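pinning this so it doesn't scroll away 📌
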Amino acid sequence: MDTIVYTVDGKEKGRYELPTFFSTEIKTALLHEITTGYLANLRAGTHATKTRGETSFSGAKPWKQKGTGNARAGQRNSPLWRKGGIIFGPKPRDYYQKISKQKRKLALSMAFANLVNENNLVLVDLIKIKEAKTKNIAMLLKNLKVDGRKVIIALPKKDEVVKVASRNIANVFVEQIANLNAYQVLWADKIITTPEAIDSIKEKQA
């Protein structure tokens, strides 16, 4: 399987033979499991509410039991009252889900395969800009006809110039291709990368 390689001006330069992991059979159940796990592991789990025993109220009875015309009341921290305790409210907890290395690797290959199937992989011969200016990245996106989309620019190695130039554009993220996970690949409408970047993870995904 091969695909077109473009220049930064959006013109065809040649073709590139994609590694075999781009042809991985896609299993929706595994992708769902992995993405659910990634999202769960992003949760802080710091949510908390107070029970009636934790609220700051006097234990005194609000009014006498009979004769006032009011309903009977024992304490002001009742869950039925404003600012009272919460019944079965959320408490801090750990949402972490363990994901095996083999599943992460397989899911990433599937996500890349889906990317190619949906024609959302954009290969560029070289991603390099001279100055860290937003207009330079905006022009690149426009030339490749991916502006206005959710885009990940996947680089073979860290490039602060490209990263700084991209940070003012909504839904455009710069990441090293070796650090991508299946959830990120599935999230993106388009992924812009280079043959060099794909070659750098060929052995890792094989």
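📌 and the second one:
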Amino acid sequence: MSDKINADKAPKPVGLYPHARKVGNLLFLSGVGPRTAGSDANDSGVPGLKLDHNGNFEAFDFEAQCRSVFDNVRAVLEASGSTWESLVDVTVFLVNMKRDFSTYNQVYAEYFKDVQPCRTTVEINSLPTPIAIELKCIATIDEGA
């Protein structure tokens, strides 16, 4: 048995999937990006990103995307009855490793100073919305939650 969880304080999924699923005492988060809550697939809502009418970057702040994606992960965890400290595994998808890894690693160190889950970081060609980072996480959850 598993329970589907959707978080009001996280951006809506861009497809037919929940924000997370609880299986036993494990919590599996779907891919979480930096879009702001209330935005959907048709509204970029990406902090630090401004596109022109052709979809080209006018402004790009990768650090803002990092901070937003971490805040969105926290929102999903809390809506699921888990916590930031309960993260055990984080897979990170970057669309441009060379440009963004250093900034990502610096912001990650701030957020994960005391909590050090396992981590894998990979570069991918693109994501389904104009974002530069997405996280896939696994956490533990209290059996009573």
